[in-house]
Design a protein that fits this description.
This protein is mainly alpha-helical. Helix content is 81%, strand content 0%. Helix 4 crosses helix 17 and helix 11 crosses helix 20.
Length: 411
Amino acid sequence: MSSQTAASPAVPPRGLRRALFMGPAFVAAIGYIDPGNYATNIQAGADFGYLMLWVVVWANLMAATIQLLSAKLGLATGESLASMLGKRLPRWAVYPYWIQAEIIAMATDLAEFVGAALGFKLLFGMTLMQGAVATAVISWVVLMMESRHMKPLQATIGTMLLAVASIYVLELFFSHPAPVSLFKGALLPGFEGRDSVYLAAGILGATVMPHVIYLHSALSRGDVQAYGRLSRKHIYRASRWDVAIAMTIAGFVNFAMLAMAAAVFHGSGVPGVGDIEVAHKTLEPLLGQFASQVFGASLLIAGLASTIVGTLAGQEIMSGFVKFRIPLSIRRAITMAPSFVVIALGLNVTHVLVMSQVVLSFGIALALIPLLLFTSDRKLMRGYANPTWVNVIGWSIVAVVVMLNGYLLLS
């Protein structure tokens, strides 16, 4: 009787695999292909050709490492990164740290919401304001799934990720990138002036997203609570595959996005082709109407999915740091307000998106440093502490981010 009771929380491997399919990493990965990525990748490809592909490759490897650490923290401790900081920071530091995390989350949501509105405009001919209203309604409906159960929401977002990846398989086919230049750009690091460094910071901020570092640990904590602490080892094994598959898909989308822009737009002679709307218009005469339509569809899907993820992350940041939650509908209304202001003012959408991603790059270290400190603590992590080589990689990532941010501030 006692042995059955002890074993009951464990999830059978098949049931566990089914439960974790399109799990937390697929939700986090959407943050890595949001409209901010479209802006930075298309701008980089149009302005510098294949030169910046290596930034996408390394940023994605960094992101995969960080997401695995975030998942491990939630699994080992039963806490999210935000709740750990809320408990362990000095009381005077909790609110400032929470406020900067909220600012980063709102900058993210600005890019995602405006990008989704732009997707509606490109695909259906709506005005940006009409697209913003449609984005608000659809994201609110999808978020209502969270009040019932997280897994249907995770599966929905994971399906969106796969849809965007499928679209970029088609875009690569249409654009015919140069293989030699493709591999050279992916393998050989290099810059061409200050603007390329600025875009590298934007690509890094758009790829290593601070808000999903907070969210992934919370979703992994939820898996432990749902499937039992005795299943922690099974969940951790499954989460490694979850991260590997999801981040490979997200990395492919970013790689294909920049490669497509390099192949089609670089040297085309079209002024302002790095702008998303100009790029969309240019795709049709260069690659055909279908290519421009699927480009608009991919932006719309990525924008809708990422704005949902951004709202969930913001909710976790608030509840973790200050132990306070508000209804998702109210949070959705608050976080989308700046987007309506940007649209009403008629600001250049692509410039806003790129700038928001550079702002995000300044929040990476503030999330990553405590994540590394917590996951290195052997007592806290209960057998899941980072080995030395993982810590070396993690602190190297912090050093790269801080140096890049320092260069941008000084220049």
